[in-house]
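We treat protein structure as text, and this decision shapes the records that our systems exchange. Because each token names a local backbone shape, the row as a whole describes the fold. An entry from our holdings is shown next, in its original layout:
>
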Amino acid sequence: ELHLSQRFERNCTCRKSCTCKAMPNECRALAHKIQDKHQPGRFASRFWKQQCHAVSAKQYHDLARELVWPMFKADLGACTEKNDTNPETQERTLTVHLRSDDMWKGLDGKKIPSDAVANHWLWQHPPCSLYEKVIAEEGFQHVLVVTSSDRLNPCVSWFEKRAMWSNYSVRVQSKTLLEDSCALLRARNLFLSYSTFPESMAVLSLQVRRIFSRTQYQQYSAMDAH
């Protein structure tokens, strides 16, 4: 559930229906369907089953800048505005999000055995060789890998081994949610995993210039314009 801010509610043409002026027309029917009839301004939806169709990432980006950014904690906003990296270094850095955790763990939280049936979403994630291809073709000199603390994604160790003899530097980061979100939001060149988390950061970002992914985005995410 998402409880919308008072600012969002003020943008509504009618508090009872909460059909918002800024809302894309393609989303109005869905908003009406999933709103809480007893609590105006409150919605509940399973994003992987209910979605707006034919809404561009730019539309999501514009709305996110207006409505979501003001709700961020001050620490996150301050982090994204830091000017502590050389602009040339930023342009030559590829930030890679590697999804681990639920892709490599069972419901009991334990690591999935190598001979077990793999999570069907694993096949949507880029192979490690695709990162190498993009780095070589685009001439990146630095790679920042953002991943969860378990570091179960095999591409984490792959990157660490490549760093020993490749002509680009590699740094792996597994910090707090705020710090990892900040790293993705500050990226100029961002390689997405098959996950709504990095895709949401890409849509929210004010700094990203190039976005890389495999053949498709996370289904029904803000990057997945149907």
The beta strands are 2-3, 42-43, 93-98, 142-147, 169-173, 189-191, 210-212. The first helix runs from residue 6 to 10.
